[in-house]
TrEMBL record:
This enzyme's EC code(s): 3.6.1.55
SUPFAM superfamilies listed in its UniProt record: Nudix (SSF55811)
Enzyme's top EC category: hydrolase
The keyword Hydrolase belongs to this UniProt entry's keyword annotation: yes
UniProt keywords, alphabetically: DNA damage, DNA repair, DNA replication, Hydrolase, Magnesium, Metal-binding, Mutator protein
Domain (Nudix hydrolase): residue spans on this chain: 1-128
GO BP annotations, alphabetical order: DNA repair; DNA replication
UniProt catalytic activity: 8-oxo-dGTP + H2O = 8-oxo-dGMP + diphosphate + H(+)
Family the entry assigns: Belongs to the Nudix hydrolase family.
Protein's recorded name: 8-oxo-dGTP diphosphatase
Gene3D superfamilies cross-referenced by the UniProt entry: Nucleoside Triphosphate Pyrophosphohydrolase
UniProt xrefs under InterPro entries: MutT-like, Nudix_hydrolase, NUDIX_hydrolase-like_dom_sf, NUDIX_hydrolase_CS, NUDIX_hydrolase_dom
Amino acid sequence: MTQPLVVVAAVIERDGWILACRRRPEKTAGGRWEFPGGKVEAGEDPEEALVREIEEELGVGIRITGHLTTDETDAGDRVIRLTCFRAELEGAGPVASTDHDRLVWLEPASLAGMDWATPDLPAVRLLTGSAPE
């Protein structure tokens, strides 16, 4: 059995709002919403990887404030192990992304109405207080 793909994501909160990012159409899961982040590289711890990924994708710095979820999702040809961390911006908010075509700030209750990438759903359910499917 192959090892899961280890991925991290940031649930970036500002003034009670949460950042959601829509994947570019040409990307895997294009057009679906996710929390920004990416793969953990060899030799990185998850927190280091997340800070690096957010800098690369969004051009902003973050401070990780806590662990939210770690879940494994069967993505067809592989399993994705996604760890979501709560985070805060260090400085200005992002205005563009290398991996996303839209960035929106939403109240937690509005998250459930978006078309989320499957690996992000457990974190969305936790943030909205909705029951798992």
